[in-house]
Please model this.
Amino acid sequence: MVQYRNLLDREINRDMFRQFIRRQVVGNCYRWEKDHWEIREDPFIDDWSEDDYQVLIRCLKNTVSTGGFVQGAFRDGVLKGFASVEAEFLDEERRYLDLSSIHVSSDARRMGIGKRLFLGAVQWARKNGAEKLYISAHSAVESQAFYRSLGCVDALWRCEAHVEQEPYDCQLEYAISMLKGNPAAEDIVLKMDPPAEGIVLKMDPPAEGIVLKMDPPAEGIVLKMNPPAEGTRLEGKPGAWILEGCVDSVESAVTAWEAGAGRLELCANLMIGGTTPSLAAFRQVKRLCRVPVHVLIRPRPGDFCYTKQEFALIREEISIFRKEGADGIVIGILKPDGRLDLERMKLLMEDAQGMSVTLHRAFDVCADPYEALEQAAALGIHTILTSGGRANCIEGIQCLGKLMSQADGQIRIMAGGGVDASVIPRLFWEAGIRDFHMSGKMICQSPMTYRKGDVHMGAEGFGEYELWRADGERFREAARILDQQSKQDREQKGR
Model:
């Protein structure tokens, strides 16, 4: 069990770091080229000398003595991670506080320690009046993936002292969500393991929990609220799960949300695999559904190898939906040989800064899914939506299990393709899946009474008077089954 606590001046000494392993093997780094980031090969090993430790100790002691924040993460009494925030504002407008350090021992990485320390730093900075955290961040691809997954973006204001000291660092910022409208909203969610103590309307990344309803409203990340939560949709905790509704209409979006979907993927033309939705549809869904809305960016049906013009369209659509407040995007581009088009994907990741990114089922038709997973994680992609490379998730269950093992917490694996209540238990227990993507569709008859059957508006085979809509009962049942499996999982782990 990992324990987190603020450090005292007297305990910050060399002995505290005796079992701390800084070592980081770096292969590729971000480099600024003219007007955009490029990933360049720059292999080296980052480690601390004895002199480096002595400088670190002096700096942390100074942070504590000047009223700043230093928090440690301890496992069995041994330091495994730490973070610090300086007390003095960096800028004259008093907006930015400096996240001066955050490190996790190499033997304790990918356990959520860094994320928890970051959230603790955000909590402290908010209480001390900051609008943003400033981070002069290591340029290694892995380090940048960590910060970007938390919602950090390129800094709008640059601290020249940091740039001069570390010219190869990426200067980032994190906008701190201020709680409004609910006096019972007390703090940032550091832990939301069911039963959650609050009901949240809106959760700004990097929230670790999403729940269905909230009364009264609160526009932030919440530790404790009243009345009690009516249901939880958690991200990143043991026993947690996500149920994402794939919807192609405002009607289906509202139905899925009201029936238990904790997140929505909005698209158009679901019957042909989905394409980019209209801006008007997105605006209505955001206005009516109080859960995160991710937008599918796909210019056409068919394969995922795009022309120059199609790629330009994808980039522009990402920019539009980002400005409109989309919580995430769902994308994927392949090369003719079936591998991820890394050059183009890097540009899309830059375009998507501040949004969650899901690699869609282009992943299922790539040449090597295990190579693609490693590439996606290195790009900073948050989620892979996949059926395990098969027609549906049950046929691909063995591959899904392997992907979960390979991912090892560095990227989320979301099962899609044939997901409903009947298959969730198998995916949950046999493959370890906790994130589920379903359309829950049913076919409804058009209210048209006059029907002219010999005229087709589109391809033959699609009924002109049949409408695809989300089935609320299917979503409710899926949510019920997921709650049931999660409860069993928690009970077993508690024995």
Observations:
- Residues 241-494 form a domain with the TIM Barrel fold (CATH 3.20.20.380).
- Residues 41 and 161 are 27 Å apart (CA to CA).
- Residues 472-494 form the longest helix (23 residues).
